[in-house]
Amino acid sequence: MTAVIVEAVRTPVGKRNGGLSTVHPADLSAVVLNAVVERAGIDPSVVEDVIWGCVQQVGDQANDIARNAVIAAGWPETVPGVTVDRQCGSSQQALNFAVASVEAGHYDVVIAGGVESMSRVPMGSGATFPGSPYSPAYMERYDGVKPNQGIGAEMIAERWGLSRSELDAFAVQSHERAAAAQDAGFFDLQIVPVKTPDGEVITRDEGIRRGSSQESLAKLKTVFKEDGVIHAGNASQISDGASALLIMSEQAAARHGVRPIARIHSLTVVGDDPVTMLTAPIPATKKVLDKSGLSLEDIGVFEVNEAFASVPLAWLKDIGADPAKVNPNGGAIALGHPLGGSGGRILTDMIHHMRANGLRYGLQTMCEGGGQANATILELVDAG
């Protein structure tokens, strides 16, 4: 069977303690769950599973938030849900699991996506219980070095010879591209408005900083090394948000009268050095291109998650892609990075960009905790 994406939506991305911070993450998830089936015109009872990414599965996000979101959405109790953690790539991995299940013939209709409310469940909350996720054997293997993403970002900048001015220029570009996309109404079709408990309706991404400049970023203090290059302005934002993609077999799409937008051409996941941690998008891209039989030139748009500016810049240097094709509508530096929901947010953005510009192929990859990366190539089926 061939798996196709028939709808892709997301919430606005809220700033930390911003407009979405008062919304429970299960309720935030319910917003996109309801929107994705409403737009497709299907009854939620036909959904055979909800595969949901979420990184910090404690507090408001504990006890299988996928299932809790289904209940919060008011869907039939017969619809199950399962929560996935592949760190920042959790909702991209949710899509890949959904696709594999459909193509294996186990499912006909499944929803993939994810959520993270970093305002309500701060990053690192899952590791606050006594103990450590890094065992003695793990620490011994890496000479006692405890993984740290920020230090990894600094190591990448040093290894690829990236200066602070290069990183800051990339960060400014991210905000400029996101602002231009927002002003042009590009995000409007993919964003589902969210009504907060106090009655406010959030409709726009909150993280875009208009008028950002290298001069203003140059004043910021580095975070991880005193003489380093990484600071808050060239790193992804702490955010709240959710995303959802509706996946069907081609046969199910025809049966339900739904027109596919894209099919999943190729996908992969790789592991790399967990200390540097953020370099895996490079081998993931090479591997998925090799698996697909496509060339770099065949890809019309690339989405490389902007966890830190050094990640996509090192990727660009190594892969040699056209910079104009990479994150054309801005990335996590401007739009934010709600961990478990980011993969789906980026996929949704890429699908809409491909459709708006008639691009046949798009490739998404993102670095993940533990030194991993997913890579997914989509092929446009319906240009709308």
From TrEMBL:
Instruction: Extract the SUPFAM superfamilies matched here.
Output: Thiolase-like (SSF53901)
One protein family per Pfam = Thiolase_N
Thiolase N-terminal domain: residues covered = 4-251
Question: How would you classify this enzyme at the top EC level?
Answer: transferase
Question: Catalytic residues per the record?
Answer: 88, 337, 367
Keyword vocabulary terms for this entry: Acyltransferase, Transferase
The record's EC number reads 2.3.1.16
Identify its protein family. Answer: Belongs to the thiolase-like superfamily. Thiolase family.
> What is this protein called in UniProt?
3-ketoacyl-CoA thiolase
Q: Which organism is it from?
A: Gordonia insulae
Identify the coding gene.
Answer: fadA_5
